[in-house]
Amino acid sequence: MMYSMAYPAPVLSVALSADDTRLAVGMASGVFSLRRRAVSAKEQALAAPAQRARLGTHAHFTRGAAYKGGDDDLRIEQRRKRSLADYDQFLRKFEHSRALDAVLANNRTGLTVVSLLQELVHRDGLAGALAGRDELGLDTIVRFVVKFIDHPRYTSVLIKVAETLLDIYGDLLHQSGRIAELLVRLRAKVRTELRLQQDLTMVIGSMDMLMAACKVSHAAAVPAIDAAATEKPSIQT
What we know:
It contains nine helices and three strands, in the order βββααααααααα. The protein is mostly helical. The chain has a three-stranded antiparallel β-sheet with strand order 1-2-3, with no helix packed on it. α3 packs antiparallel against α4, α4 runs antiparallel to α5 and α7 runs parallel beside α9. The radius of gyration is 41 Å and the shape is elongated. The termini are far apart.
């Protein structure tokens, strides 16, 4: 309750004017009360255009648009619809090559680029997105592959990308010194990763042998302990 009014007798009827400025009250004692609310200059300025606007006109439908509300009014902010990224817009149009160029051109994170490459694989559009490129277009893609080929989360997708590039441009890659240098770096990085995987496999095999030997020793020691615990001591006379 924001306002209260006191009357000398019980109220029988109440009426309010259309502009919310006058209040008429009839009481049981036969007294009629008419109260008028003071209208501020701001309310008069807002109400004046609406009164002058004719029904059906543009001014009639836009009346009250300039009203900002009071300090105690509850404001509900309009949420703007989040726009799609440029590469997502190209994907919606099935422009796979342009989507790949867009995601590589703006220094996006590796996860974003790999996610788009994974989407192209699911759409069977990876070969089409990689085909028809010049030396500059290939340079950006190959550099990304060289940088993240050994990342555990990206390896499976980037291996597919590297295989597709070799299938499409295998006979032409030697014509570009820049691309040939990147491929040499890629080969060296893959070899290093393979040696690391082999060393890890050997370490895991050695640990499995040690764990198996420990289990055998433990299994042989348990019966001996049980037998010693159940043996009855001899009585000497």
